[in-house]
Design a protein that fits this description.
Elements lengths: L1 E2 L4 E6 L3 H4 L1 H14 L3 E4 L5 H14 L4 E6 L1 H11 L6 E5 L5 H5 L7 H10 L1 E11 L5 E5 L2 E3 L2 H9 L8 H11 L6 E7 L2 E13 L21 E7 L3 H7 L14 E6 L1 E5 L4 E4 L2 E5 L2 E13 L1
Parallel strand pairs: 2-3, 2-4, 4-5
Antiparallel strand pairs: 1-6, 6-7, 6-16, 8-10, 8-14, 9-10, 9-13, 10-11, 11-12, 13-16, 14-15
Helix pairs in contact: 2-6, 7-8
Length: 301
């Protein structure tokens, strides 16, 4: 681990994070960084696409030594994609709703001042990313935490069509609406060249341990081991699934015989009518291949 020595810090915020506190958070972060003698490069754009473009250009041109993002898991994942395979480290100010990735990395959550202190005084180390590819080998995106493509992804897809309620309760309501109509999904999996077919309720490919606001779906996952944890919940009655599902918040679901975890470096997942999600964001419909990208990201921890 090396110490942070960045003088030129790019700042990318999500204005809607933390119940639309993003702008105030961004101002506070900039004030603290400038008070510490750092030059802050504002990467705000008229929209998310323009902001991302500015950040990518700043990284590629060497105009910044460090990228700091402020928001939730989505903006942290965006920052990871921008800094992936570069020597520009990523610093995270976690002020979103879930903040799973920051929490699992041991970073301050919902504490702007503590997060900035960590960025200024912390260390930089390399971590793995999950890398999503099409069947043609085209890179779709990278992710920090967990790619989901089962019940949880179906719930996310439903929640994204709902206008009410806002925040975590929308996800909970989507669960209640999906439960009566959900059935097992037929998957074709290839894990490090080994092909298999299963009927299951859930398949996740985990780089980190948790997603969904504290669900420790892969409690033994390690972001520095160069491997991904494939979490499979095999076909079980819905009543059994409902009894197992709450255990994921403590990571104790892995003791159930229907839960299987396989480690691998390359995983292809194929099924119909399922859209994958990662770091709280919609990724792409299956089929997809996920590969471990060892040490692809420098992160301030």
């Amino acid at each position: 681990m090396t110490r942070v020595t960045a003088e030129r810090i790019g700042l990318l915020i999500n204005p809607t994070a933390g119940k639309h506190r993003g702008e105030q958070v961004g101002t506070r972060v900039a004030d603290l960084l400038e008070a510490a003698g750092r030059q802050v490069v504002d990467l705000t754009g008229l929209d998310a696409s323009r902001a991302e473009g500015k950040a990518r250009a700043a990284v590629a041109s060497g105009d910044i030594d460090l990228l700091v993002v402020a928001g939730g898991d989505g903006v942290a994942g965006l920052g990871a994609n921008i800094c992936a395979d570069t020597d520009v480290p990523l610093g995270i100010v976690a002020v979103g709703t879930g903040n799973d990735n920051a929490r699992e990395l041991g970073l301050p959550v919902q504490d702007v001042d503590a997060a900035v202190r960590r960025i200024l005084a912390g260390g930089v180390r390399r971590m793995d990313l999950g890398r999503v590819l099409t069947d043609d080998g085209e890179r779709v995106r990278d992710y920090l935490g967990v790619l989901s493509c089962g019940f949880d992804a179906v719930v996310n897809e439903r929640a994204n069509t709902m206008l009410w309620p806002r925040g975590p309760q929308r996800y909970n309501l989507a669960i209640l609406r999906e439960l009566p109509v959900f059935g097992p999904i037929h998957y074709e999996l290839t894990i490090d060249g080994v092909e298999r077919e299963i009927d299951g309720m859930l398949v996740c490919v985990a780089n980190g341990r948790a997603f969904g606001g504290g669900m420790k779906v892969a409690p033994a996952a390690d972001v520095e081991d160069g491997l991904l944890d494939v979490v499979i919940v095999h076909d079980i009655p819905m009543a059994t699934f409902l009894s197992v599902f709450p255990k994921v918040f403590k990571g104790t679901h892995t003791s159930h015989p229907a839960v299987e975890i396989v480690r691998g470096a390359s995983i292809r997942i194929a099924t119909e009518r399922i859209v994958s999600y990662a770091d709280g964001e919609r990724v792409a419909p299956l089929p997809l291949t996920v590969e471990a990208a060892p040490g692809a990201l420098s992160i301030v921890r």
